[in-house]
Amino acid sequence: MIEIWKTLPEIKGFYEVSNLGRVKSLARVIDRKHGYPLPIKEKIMTNCLDKKGYARMRLSVNKIGMTIKVHRLVARAFIVNKHNKKQVNHKNGIKTDNNVNNLEWATNRENHIHAVDNNLIKYRKGNDHPMAILNSDKVLIIKERLFKGDTQLSIANDFGVNHSTICNIKTGRSWKNV
Hints:
The chain is built from 5 helices and 11 strands.
């Protein structure tokens, strides 16, 4: 693939980003504190990884520094965002693969569904969910009591949950696997 370089309006004259996910600092002269000009040579920059594993860069424009994720720079430069989506998704799930062909604009929901569908995050439910009040054994008891005709409100009070939780168990909206 041929490498194509583009600039973004807010970093014009300072940096360019390529369709392969690289960022370069452009040649320029900056004024130093003591008044002497400092020539800066053009160079390909090295990125670092943030806590979540995304490549990021520290850029400085007119003495204002900013840290920005590389995949967002690539997407903003090369991918039209006609639906004004807020996130950039890595199609193959590799957070460091910032090639334009691997990126797409996405909503938070689309990004989350992609991550779950591709086993990038584990969708935790039932006993595995960190906020679960109930467990499989308690749900079996609840289902038995529902079968016997106990009211949802009395069951909810006994287990310390909202009556809508009992209703969801009864209708199969939650704890289907039990």
